[in-house]
Amino acid sequence: MKTYRNLPLFVKILIGAVLGAILGIVLGKQAAPLKLISDIVLQSLRLLATPLIFLSLMHSLLSTEVKEKTAGRLVWILMTNTIFAILIGLFVANLLVPGSHVHVPAPTTGIDKKPFDPLVDLVGKIPKDFVNPFAGNDLIGIIFVGLVLALALRSLRKGEHAGKIQSLIGYLKLGLDTILKLLHWLFELVPLAVLAIVAQVVGTTGFDPLINMAWFVASVVLALGLMCCVYLVRLRLSSKIRPIQFVKGGFDAFTLAFSTASSVATLPVTYACATEKLGLREESASLGIMVGGTFNHDGTALYEAMAALFVAQAIGQHLTLAHQLVLVLMAIIASVGAAGIPQAGLVTMIAVFTALRLPIDYIPLLLPLDWLLDRCRTTVNVAGDLVSTCIVDR
To answer: How many angstroms separate the CA atoms of 187 and 311, rounded?
Structure first.
């Protein structure tokens, strides 16, 4: 058990997937009840998604110190990068239709067939009070409340309440660290959830759904590669740093991001690459990497958009243009709320699925191969931080 605890999470997930496949072969149709285990883990992750996004949003908006003009420029760069990433992901998923190669069991929660009006749906999520969004776990309402509160509190930072605001920031950081600790504990149960869902799928439908996941992996890697091309083109047009210089200067950060799957763990190296190897100003590096890195998760946004479309295709639930516009909005919000730790995107993905009325039952199916995709999208996240910093520095 000591050796097992010291293993990286992706190795534990792979072990769970292998044991689940063996268990599915042995039990056959009798493996179906094991799905209850993955349901429990998913509900627990959904429980933590609310405070994670709320506290991360509040803390980020209150603790950042940027000039208005530079902040506006940075916001424009980050938002356009994220929108580019999501649109690329949706384009590739709609073009290749990876979900059509996967046949999974019908969702136990059923498919919502009601007419979908994105404007009515979004307006209906504007909270009528401060309590109901938290009581109903309405993530869009919670984000709305957090954004309004953070902006109001931010305007009081330099007045008579400055000391209290600083104390509040400390409490928000404590709350955020607490949620991250709970997430780390819960991540220890994720391999068990993977074992259960793989055993259930193999026992009831065989290996085809898992083998055909290769289509999804290839689609995501292709989309991330296209996003990297967008970065290099934008860098060439809007920065003094040339693409080859950028790749060489940021190579250490990219390597560490891929090996750790954590943009937070990579921050010090990313900062050093920006200031020492790329010759960017410390002010630009602090803004683009330390501040921008909190909000910038282009790879995560791209992945979550593609994951939602993939699952919808796999279960035969057609997502109209209206659905996909909401998907763009929710992927942006979820990517901002995603902490820079491994598998945090798993938590915010639940918010995306919920907003689109997609069953979250199939999220564990993505996990056996997520160890690779998590590293790829984290590397793209770090590359996006560096690109934004280079453009701001100019």
So the answer is: 22
